[in-house]
Design goal:
CATH class: Alpha Beta
CATH topology: Metal Transport, Frataxin, Chain A
CATH architecture: 2-Layer Sandwich
Radius of gyration: 13 Å
Strand content: 15-25%
Number of strands: 3
Largest sheet: 3 strands, antiparallel
Low-confidence stretches: none
Helix content: 25-40%
Mean pLDDT: 91
Strand order of the largest sheet: 1-2-3
Structural class: alpha+beta
Number of domains: 1
Length: 87
């Protein structure tokens, strides 16, 4: 079977050498990597990893580098689903 072509964010096409930012918390790493694999733009800025969807229509998802609440992981996961990422 042929592998389906993933639609990439415009920034990812312009920067083919870009790499997925690594989250320090192991629970959040698969979420950021799944977004990167799905063609999203993920960029680390200060204390967050910002993820822009490939369609550039949905909202940006902010993933905190130092999550503080007990619901933070669930909220980030929900934000990715709302942005169209299948996880």
């Amino acid at each position: 079977m042929a592998k389906a072509k993933v639609k990439k964010h415009r920034w990812r096409i312009e920067n083919p050498e870009a790499k997925c930012p690594r989250h320090p918390k192991k629970d959040y790493r698969p979420l950021v990597e799944a977004a990167w694999t799905a063609g999203w733009k993920c960029k680390r800025q200060r204390k967050y990893i910002y993820c822009w969807p490939a369609d550039e229509v949905s909202d940006i998802v902010k993933v905190p580098m130092t999550p503080s609440g007990s619901r933070t992981l669930a909220n980030v996961r929900r934000n990715f689903r709302d942005g169209g990422l299948v996880i």
